[in-house]
Design brief:
The protein is α/β, with parallel strands linked by helices. Helix content is about 35%, strand content about 20%. The radius of gyration is 25 Å and the shape is globular.
């Protein structure tokens, strides 16, 4: 072979190797190509408040309007919309009287992508909870919600984590989301509603799934119906964050709930940022974050606690859907439940007759669960004295 042909062959081989290297470096379909900025919108403790309160705070239509505006601003594909529990019980009749169906209908319509279970999701038992989960257009996560008598088997209606693709197709990042529910749930909800399941230590649950999630995701966050501070023997997110750091498995971002905290600046524990968005849809949390797939690091660039009220533009479709559900419950709301010859007065700072009525009703209901009626009546009598 002549020297000129050898030179041509060498050039061709070099070009082939260069092309092969460049092709190998290109992202595959749906794989993140580089550092990417995303927006995480979050709510918690909505409690079925589809309508604004008497002061105009909250309201699903106004919440949806703000979400739509942010999607238009940064691109809908770059937004993750998630909720940290207590969506439909423990609050407004428009949701409670439909067994939560109205709230989940509207949340699905708004495009929620992930939720975690709050203690109030268990208020009417696991059959209703499973129905609302099946109705949802998104997964519910709860890594520490485990079938009693097993190590890490979960009820059919829950998954421990999910991987959420964020970004336009071809340029996505994979956001791993581990869910947690407060392990005080069996104590603060009705007796029997959590039978057959246990709520494992939240730190242990994150550690159990941490490596599995990180192997699939470009970054990991925790979505928890857990407040920031400890509550008696029950851990808050600050404690959980520090325990994960001590274990060498830190989480960059934790989104909480349960304690109805109005956080305007993220709480910092080591390298972990903790946020929460008040309650009843009165705030929308907005996290602007950068994800580096190479290091699997999520950096919180900015956080906003956005006030939601009836001065904002409303989403007309959501407003119409809320009006529909208001019409559904209106006949139920109009039914008399009793009569009184005196005015029922509420006093937040002292005993009141409406307070006594509610307290006595709670005691009456609690008696249905008591195994020792005689002892219970004696206790009530001593309390009345």
């Amino acid at each position: 072979m002549s020297s000129s042909k050898k030179r041509v062959l060498a050039i061709l081989l070099t070009l082939a190797m260069l092309v092969s290297t460049l092709v190998g470096a290109l992202p595959t379909h749906g794989e993140a190509s580089a550092v990417k900025q995303i927006t995480i919108l979050h709510t918690n403790d909505f409690h079925g408040n589809l309508e604004p309160d008497s002061s105009g705070r909250g309201g699903a239509a106004y919440l949806a309007g703000k979400i739509n505006a942010i999607r238009a601003e940064v691109g809908a594909a770059n937004v993750a919309l998630i909720d940290a529990g207590d969506v439909y019980f423990g609050g407004a009749p428009i949701s409670a009287l439909t067994m939560g169906e109205s709230a989940i209908d509207v949340f699905t319509m708004m495009g929620y992508q992930v939720g975690c279970y709050g203690n109030h999701e268990f208020d009417k038992g696991q059959t209703v909870l499973a129905e609302r989960t099946a109705q949802s257009g998104y997964p519910w996560v709860g890594a520490n919600v485990v079938v009693e008598g097993t190590e890490w088997d979960h009820p059919a209606w829950v998954q421990p984590y999910t991987i959420l693709n964020v970004g336009p197709v071809g340029d996505q990042v994979k956001l791993g989301i581990i869910g947690l529910s407060t392990d005080e749930t069996p104590v603060v909800t009705l007796k029997g509603t959590t039978d057959g399941i246990v709520f494992k230590d939240p730190t242990a649950a994150v550690l159990h799934y941490y490596d599995e999630v990180m192997a699939q995701a470009d970054a990991l966050i925790v979505l928890a119906h857990v407040g920031t501070n400890d509550s008696g023997p029950y851990k808050g997110l600050k404690t959980i964050a520090q325990e994960l750091i001590n274990a060498g498995k830190p989480v960059d971002l934790m989104i909480g709930g349960h304690q109805h905290e109005q956080i305007t600046t993220p709480i910092v524990v080591g390298g972990t940022r903790i946020v929460e968005a008040y309650y009843a849809g009165r705030n929308l949390g907005r996290v602007t974050a950068t994800i580096d797939p190479a290091t699997k690091k999520l950096t919180v660039d900015a956080f906003q606690a956005i006030t939601i009220n009836n001065t904002l533009p409303a989403d007309p479709d959501v407003a119409a859907r809320v009006a529909y559900w208001k019409g559904v419950v209106a006949p139920i709301m109009a039914q008399p439940v009793g009569t009184t010859n005196v005015s029922l007065i509420r006093d937040y700072n002292a005993e009141s007759n409406i307070g006594d009525l509610v307290a006595d009703s709670m005691l009456w209901k609690a008696d249905e669960y008591d195994d020792d009626d005689e002892a219970d009546e004696q206790s009530h009598e001593e309390t009345r004295r």
